[in-house]
Design brief:
binds adenosine-5'-diphosphate; single chain; 3-stranded antiparallel sheet; alpha+beta; 10-stranded mixed sheet; binds magnesium ion; about 30% helix; 8 helices
C-alpha cells in the first residue's frame, strides 16, 4: 500500500482556489491564488501584484509543460523516451536538470543519483506494490543504476541510455519548477508570493504586512500535529524544502515494516541513518530540493561536513532532526529559526 503524506509547510495565509481578491483600490495589492495537481502532487501558488492573475496562469502553464517533458508516467515525455533507450536530443530543461544532477552527485559522493530509477521501480515505488529485492537483484541494479555508468557528459546535446538504465527527476524537478515559477512571477512584476509545489516551498519577497514569511516544518514524530512543529523558519526570497522518510513509503502488510522512497545508492535500500528529517533553506529551489534528498542519504555528520564545505558558496542552510529527536541548524539560520525543541547551532 502506498501512503503519501506530503509535508505540510504551513504559512499564515489561506489559499483561495483560482480566485482573484481585490483589496481596496490599490492595483499593487491585487491577490491571486491557485491550487492544482501536477507532477504527481498537490501544488499551490499565491501572489500579490497588479498582474497577479495573469502571472499565476503563466506559472501553471509552465508547470504543466515541465510535467509533460519530465514525467516518467507519460509515454511521450522526453524522460520516457530517454528511459526507453532512444537517442534523444535534449531540451534545455532536461539539460539543466541533468547538469545540476551531475554536479550534486559528484559533490555528494553519489548520495544523489537520478539513475536509480530502475531500482525505484523494482521496489514498487511507482506501482505501489512493495517488492523487496534480493541480494542478486540488488547487485545487478547497483552496477548499472548509477550516473557514473552513463555515456553522457555535462553539456552534451543528446543522451542515449543502455538497457536497464533510466532516469527520474523526482528528487529535483519540483525545486527546478519553483525556480521557473519565481522567474515568471518576477518578470510579471510580482514582488510578494508564496508557493508550495508538493512541499517544495518558495517565499518571494515579504508578506503584505511587510513581515517575513514564517514556514513551519513538520515534526516527523507527530506529522499530523500542527501544534508540535519541528520548528518555524522566517524567510524572504528563499526556498524551504524538507525530505523525510515519513512522507512516502510502502508498508509490508505482513511485518508492518515501512520502506520509504529515498534510496541510498550505496546499498540500494531506503536510506537508514541517524536522520529523520532534513530541511534545506536556500535562494535556489533546485539546490534545496536535491540537497534535501542528498543530505537525508548522507546522514548528520556528512551533511554538516557538506555544509562546512559548500554552504557559503552554494548559499544554503540546513535544519536536521535525528532519530533520537535532536535538532541541529547550520549557522546561517541563527536568529531565523524558532522551536519548542532545544536545538544546537552547527558549522564552522
Ligand atoms: P519528494 O519528491 O517526495 O518531495 P525528495 O525530494 O526527497 O522527496 O525526492 C524523493 C524522490 O527522488 C523519490 O521519490 C525518487 O523518485 C527520487 N530518489 C530516491 N532516492 C534518490 C537518490 N538517492 N537520489 C536522487 N533521487 C532519488
Ligand atoms: Mg528533494
Amino acid at each position: 500500500m502506498m501512503r503519501s503524506k506530503r509535508i505540510a509547510l504551513i504559512i499564515a495565509a489561506t489559499c483561495v482556489s483560482a480566485s482573484l481578491l481585490l483589496s481596496g483600490c490599490n492595483k499593487n495589492n491585487i491577490e491571486a491564488s491557485k491550487e492544482f495537481y501536477a507532477m504527481d502532487t498537490q501544488m499551490s501558488i499565491k501572489c500579490t501584484g497588479e498582474n497577479s492573475k495573469k502571472a499565476i496562469d503563466k506559472c501553471v502553464d509552465r508547470i504543466y509543460s515541465l510535467e509533460s517533458i519530465l514525467s516518467v508516467t507519460i509515454d511521450e515525455s522526453e524522460v520516457s523516451k530517454i528511459n526507453s533507450g532512444k537517442n534523444v536530443k535534449l531540451s534545455s530543461d532536461v539539460k539543466d536538470l541533468l547538469n545540476t544532477s551531475i554536479d550534486i552527485s559528484d559533490k555528494t559522493g553519489g548520495a544523489f543519483d537520478i539513475a536509480l530509477y530502475p531500482l525505484i521501480e523494482c521496489w514498487g515505488f511507482r506501482s505501489g506494490e512493495l517488492n523487496i529485492p534480493d541480494n542478486d537483484e540488488l547487485e545487478k541494479y547497483l552496477s548499472t543504476c548509477t550516473m557514473s555508468e552513463f555515456e553522457y557528459s555535462k553539456g552534451d546535446d543528446t543522451i542515449q541510455l543502455c538497457n536497464n538504465q533510466g532516469i527520474d527527476f523526482g528528487g529535483i524537478a519540483k525545486g527546478y519548477a519553483s525556480d521557473e515559477v519565481v522567474k515568471i512571477l518576477k518578470n510579471n512584476g510580482i514582488k510578494s508570493a508564496y508557493m508550495s509545489l508538493g512541499g517544495n516551498v518558495y517565499c518571494l519577497g515579504l508578506k503584505k504586512d511587510n513581515s517575513k514569511w514564517r514556514v513551519g516544518i513538520v515534526n516527523p514524530t507527530a506529522p499530523n500535529d500542527t501544534n508540535s512543529l519541528l520548528g518555524i523558519v522566517s524567510v524572504r526570497d528563499r526556498a524551504v524544502v524538507t525530505s523525510g522518510g515519513y512522507e512516502r513509503y510502502l508498508e509490508d502488510e505482513k511485518t508492518g515494516k515501512k520502506y520509504h522512497h529515498i534510496l541510498d545508492p550505496s546499498t540500494g535500500y531506503p536510506a537508514d541513518n541517524d536522520l529523520i528529517s532534513v530541511t534545506i533553506v536556500s535562494e535556489n529551489g533546485i539546490m534545496a530540493d536535491c540537497l534535501s534528498t542528498a543530505c537525508y542519504v548522507m546522514g548528520l555528520e556528512k551533511s554538516i561536513e557538506y555544509w562546512n564545505k559548500y554552504g557559503q558558496i552554494d548559499k544554503f542552510d540546513i535544519i536536521l532532526m535525528t532519530k533520537d529527536e535532536n535538532v541541529f541548524i547550520t549557522k546561517g539560520l541563527d536568529g531565523a529559526f524558532e522551536s519548542k525543541i532545544n536545538y544546537s547551532i552547527v558549522g564552522d
